[in-house]
Design goal:
By secondary structure, the protein is mainly β. Among the domains are: 319 residues, no CATH class; 150 residues, no CATH class. It has four helices and 56 strands. The radius of gyration is 49 Å and the shape is rod-shaped. Keywords: Signal.
Length: 715
């Protein structure tokens, strides 16, 4: 009996759906169970309790717990000593946070037990681990009701004073009981004496019922205190029909208001360069369901972040000969993620700088056919004290004529003559010189004069691997050697050296790929530099970023919002978190998805199938009503005036027993979790009127009303 009413009580309390019933019978001494009054419903105090052991908790499933009472406001010293508070606990998972829910259903001392009204004793708090440890828990509860229960436990049953017989209708027990007497009502008929003349109404007396309900009462959301307060009202029913009701008022049950940042975007103020986080306030109700507070996101004054400039690639404009520094505005949000508040634009703190053609980063290119050398130059700019090059070296209009020099300033020969096998000179040698800025500079070593009696050949020097390759200048220089013939054999005069006869071979470029810089939204070409001399193609560098390579910016395509794989669950409601991406096309044709911030999440039902078909169990405490019915009337005639009247000489008690049922089923969620779903209303089943006070339907209910009720619930 105790187990059944405890389970019914915890289900009612945990899901905030159990009205408190107190039935009265006209002309009888009938009160609410345990002396509950209108005032006692609002006298909620902080009751401190502690679990006697570490109890593992289940998600959504009530688990029985025993608590010791540490502090009970209003209780005499020692009144709670040795008393065990009985209750149930569970936890629900909301946005990754475990929230514990505890209700008290009674107190016990030894073999004696006293029931409590579960909806009046509840606590809700955050958990780190899925267990109830031995630390203190503060429970909001009806102080007078708990103190009264403790006093009844402390009383000695043998010394308890006899009370006047009265009918007490229990809101928690499975069957009705009478307090203060146990004799059958039929004993009254056996000892009946004729009373004074009375008139008893033949019609049945009306049955008055009172109950506390949350239906039609809105949650009072108090953002300042951070609480969502449950409202309820008291209903008065006559024969099951509501005759009056009070205004909705605070029930004393409340849920802490939490903050969800996932569904809100930041408030980005580019004038003040501040980014403020915004959140959606919500609370978790007694059924473990998330309830949003309002439709608008609210600013969080504690999460304000600086928007700072970050450098972007330099914008180069050769036509205007300007290099313009660019920057974007970004901030780091509350989860340490970089968020772009504004794209790349010309810097407001750094002015454009001039592009200058510089010869210091390039060399001088000899043109042997034209018998001159050409000065080369490249575009450069200076920023923050550093010099940068843009592009490769190109020819300028400055040329330096070649001069063949045989002797130095003193008239002495610069080079030793070429000699024959006997050591006799057979040809003079020379150096080629140019004058740069009034400074003479030799650009060759001693070279036999081709007009002399020696022979020039490229044989043995035609391999491009032996040549000098000026990658910056864009040319490769062949080599040759000199020899003379003696006795039909070649006699080398020089080793392979850079030719002053063969034309330089121009470089060709082939892009083999790209070096992507996704963080800066540009790519540098990977270039293979090669030449095609008579011997065939020769690669000088392979897939290399050349000095001065031009940045190729990515091309913006569009923005998309996609699910980022994260989900916040509240029961079967899945809040899919999204990220906004900018799609940029790279020079190689591939796309780069740049995350720029959180997108608008979307909700969908995550429960795919029914794991357990609905089961209907008792929810609210069962009730019964009784009425006294006359079974034998006797008529009398007054001898004085002849007036007739009737007197009831035999009566019996009639009973009606009512059970309340609520449906529950289990669904499979897409993350593998099992979610328990409850029906939104209750079904009340009343037994036929009987004289047997113990007759009642069984629990769980399996009658035909279950099918019709499933259909009404949409199950």
């Amino acid at each position: 009996m105790m187990k059944r009413h405890l389970m019914a009580a915890v289900l009612a309390s945990l899901y905030l759906s159990a009205p408190v019933l107190a039935q009265t019978v006209p002309d009888q001494s009938v009160t609410a169970a345990d002396g509950a009054t209108e005032d006692s419903l609002t006298q909620l105090v902080d009751i401190v309790a502690r679990s006697t052991a570490v109890v593992p908790l289940a998600a959504g499933e009530p688990v029985a717990v025993d608590l010791s009472l540490v502090s009970v406001p209003g209780a005499e010293p020692g009144l709670a000593t040795g008393v065990t508070a009985k209750g149930f606990a569970r936890y629900v998972d909301v946005e990754g946070q475990k929230i514990a829910q505890v209700v008290l259903t009674g107190v016990a001392k030894g073999e004696k037990q006293e029931a409590l009204t579960p909806e009046k004793f509840a606590a809700q708090f955050d958990l780190e681990d899925p267990e109830l440890n031995t630390q203190s828990v503060t429970i909001k509860g009806d102080g007078p009701e708990l103190v009264s229960a403790l006093r009844r436990l402390a009383e000695n049953s043998e010394d308890a004073p006899e009370e006047e017989p009265q009918q007490v209708i229990s809101a928690n027990d499975d069957g009705a009981k009478e307090v203060g007497g146990s004799k059958s009502q039929n004993d009254q008929a056996g000892t009946y004496t004729t009373p004074a003349a009375v008139t008893v109404a033949e019609a049945s007396d009306p049955v008055e019922t009172t109950m506390v309900s949350t239906e039609g009462c809105l949650i009072d959301v108090d953002l300042e205190s951070g609480l969502a307060k449950v409202q309820n009202k008291r209903l008065t029913l006559i024969d099951g029909v509501v005759s009056s009701e009070t205004e909705c008022s605070d029930s004393g049950v409340s849920y802490p208001i939490k903050r969800s940042y996932a569904a809100c975007t930041y408030d980005e103020d580019l004038e003040t360069l501040k980014a403020t986080a915004q959140y959606q306030p919500y609370y978790v109700d007694g059924g473990g369901n998330r309830q949003d507070v309002g439709d608008d996101c609210l600013k969080d004054a504690d999460l304000v972040f600086d928007i700072v400039p970050v450098a972007c690639p330099i914008d180069i404009n050769v036509s205007t000969e300007k290099a313009t520094p660019q920057e974007k505005l970004v901030y780091v949000n509350h989860v340490n993620k970089d968020v772009e508040a504004r794209g790349c634009q010309a810097s407001e703190t750094k002015a454009p700088v001039d592009l200058v053609k510089s010869t210091t980063v390039c060399g001088i290119r000899p043109d042997w056919d034209a018998k001159e050398s050409v000065q080369q130059a490249a575009w450069t700019y200076e920023l923050d004290g550093l010099q940068y090059q843009y592009g490769g070296c190109v020819d300028t209009d400055t040329v330096y004529p070649h001069q063949s020099v045989y002797v130095d300033g003193s008239g002495k020969s610069l080079c030793s003559p070429v000699t024959d096998a006997d050591g006799q000179p057979i040809s003079a040698q020379k150096k080629i010189r140019i004058t740069v800025g009034d400074i003479p500079t030799f650009i060759t070593d001693c070279t036999p004069d081709a007009d002399k009696a020696i022979t020039r050949t490229e044989e043995g020097c035609a391999n491009p691997a032996l040549w000098r390759h000026d990658v910056a200048g864009g040319w490769s220089y062949p080599k040759d050697r000199y020899y003379f013939v003696q006795d039909g054999k070649q006699v080398p005069v020089t080793e392979c050296q850079e030719s002053v006869v063969s034309a330089a071979v121009p470089h060709q470029h082939e892009t083999n790929g790209w070096q992507n810089h996704d963080d800066q939204l540009y790519a540098l070409p990977l270039t293979t530099v090669y030449i095609e001399p008579a011997s065939g193609r020769y690669d000088i560098t392979t897939a290399t970023v050349l000095n001065g390579a031009v940045q190729q910016p990515y091309v913006f395509q569009n923005s998309v919002t996609e699910w980022n794989g994260q989900t916040e669950y509240a029961g079967c409601d899945a809040l899919r978190l999204t990220t906004v991406y900018e799609i940029h096309e790279r020079p190689d044709g591939t796309d780069y998805k740049k995350p720029i911030g959180d997108g608008t999440p979307y909700s969908e039902n995550s429960c795919s199938s029914v794991v357990q078909t609905p089961v209907w169990t008792t929810s609210n405490p069962s009730t019964y009503t009784r009425r006294q019915v006359c079974t034998f009337w006797k008529n009398y005639v007054d001898g004085g005036d002849g007036h007739s009247y009737s007197v009831c000489e035999q009566s019996e008690w009639r009973y009606t027993h009512t059970h309340y049922y609520r449906g529950v089923r289990k669904l499979s969620r897409d993350d593998g979790m099992t979610v328990e779903q409850h029906s939104t209303a209750e079904y009340a089943y009343s037994s036929p009127e009987t004289t047997d006070a113990n007759e009642a339907p069984s629990s769980p209910f399996t009658g035909p009303e279950q099918i019709s009720w499933n259909q009404a619930e949409g199950w």
